[in-house]
Each structure stands twice: as structure tokens, then as C-alpha cells.
Amino acid sequence: MTDEIDTTWSADHLRVSLFASDVWSMPAEDIFFGVFGATAETITNKPAANEASAVGVWEGLRLEVKRTFNRIDFVVQDVPTDMMGPMPLIKDVRSVLPKFSSLVALWVSKQTKGVIRIALGCNAFLLSQSVEDSYVKLKGLINVIDIDVARFKEFRFQVNLPKTSSVSPSITINRLSNWASIAIRAALIGIDAPRYFDDKYYVSCSLDVNTDGERTEPINVDLVERITEELSLICAEILEVGIS
User: Fold this and answer.
1) Helices 28-36 and 93-108: crossing angle, nearest 10°?
2) What is the pTM of this model?
3) Which of 177, 191, 198, 239 is least enclosed by beta carbons within 10 angstroms?
4) Whole-angstrom distance, CA of residue 12 vs CA of residue 123
5) Are residues 24 and 67 in contact, defined by beta-carbon separation less than 8 angstroms?
6) Among 222, 231, 126, 224, which residue's Cα sits nearest to residue 174?
7) pLDDT score for 3
8) How many Å apart are CA 182 and CA 27, to the nearest integer?
């Protein structure tokens, strides 16, 4: 393993979710085109379950728009290749998430159907040198409990730290984060012999930053872009400085 350690957070996926007070009826492929200006490559419809999916490419990433009842999920993932190691990761969450989420927010702000809830999420990973190094990084990022680096094993910690939105005092933002230290090994099974990758060690942080679910009235369309930007900034802040 190289001694060079990447200090930027990567992610196995990024997600933006929208919730309405009633059922979305727009075809998934129309949503895909309306938000990203591209044509979906694969379309799946399940009318009986009121589910639809449109899959294509955005910025070199695999993009899926999934519509089900009153919810739309926009999910991007890296496209796996044989040379990518244990798992395909989107590089630099802090640069991709704002661009991705702002396109969704711009589209929402122009729709007649209002949204009552917005959520941003990801599974983020920070490369470490070892299990011990992961625990040292976790100790620096989680400031709401005391982490005993020498004693703790198989550590997992989840907490929601709600706060009032700076954009609208009537909106509460849930800041749910799930932290862990993980190690990953992968192998490619070849004709002659399996090819093993080196073990990779990570700090894992799963984020779900969202507006409160108790709301029943649509969010003012004039605020949607600003609130989405606030959610994105909160995600970036948690990954950069941790929680306290």
C-alpha cells in the first residue's frame, strides 16, 4: 500500500430525495431529462406499484432517477472498472454533491407540485493507514463522546443532532450521521489465479441530512434552492470538521 493518504472524502453514492404531499405522476425519464438535460438509457415502469426508474449517465457517473408514490430519489454512483480496487468511489464528495443537488433544487423550484421534505445523503469514506489510524481520525471527528482509541473495537456510532434552518426558522434540519471504522479486501477471480487487492482502511460516515418529516405544507418554492444549499453545506461541514 502506498504511503500517500488521500485526505478527501469519497462516497459509494450520493443521494437527493424529494417528498411531496401527494403522488408524483411525471414519468421518470421526463424528470431525468428535465433535471440533467440528458436522455435516460434504461427505463423501467411498474404501474401496479406506482414505481418508475430512469438510468443514464451524468458527468461520467451512473445516475438513477427513481419515482415511487410521493417520493423521488436521485442517486449517482461511480461506474466500476477492473482497475478501481475494492469498491468504486465518487472522488471528492465536497465538489460533486453541491453541483448535483443544486440541479435537482433548480428543477424543483420550477415545478407546480410543491415538496414538503428534502433530504441529502451519502455513504462517505476517508482513507486511513490502518485500523488504529481510523480510530485516531474518528476521535478527532466525533466530539460528542469520548473515544478510547486503545480500547474500542468494532466501533459504530449514530446520532441525530437537529438544528433550526438558517434559511427558515419554521424548518428543523435533522443531521443524522453514522460513523464506523472499516477494512475492505477485494479480489478479482481470473482464469489462472485470483488477483487480490491490498486491504484498505477507512473511516466511514453515512449521512442523512434532511428537513423534518412532520411538515404537511409545501416548502416555499422561493426557499427550495437555498435550503438545499444549506443541507449540502451541512454535509460538507460534518465531513470536514465532524460533529460536536
Assistant:
1) 110
2) 0.90
3) 191
4) 6
5) yes
6) 231
7) 43
8) 39
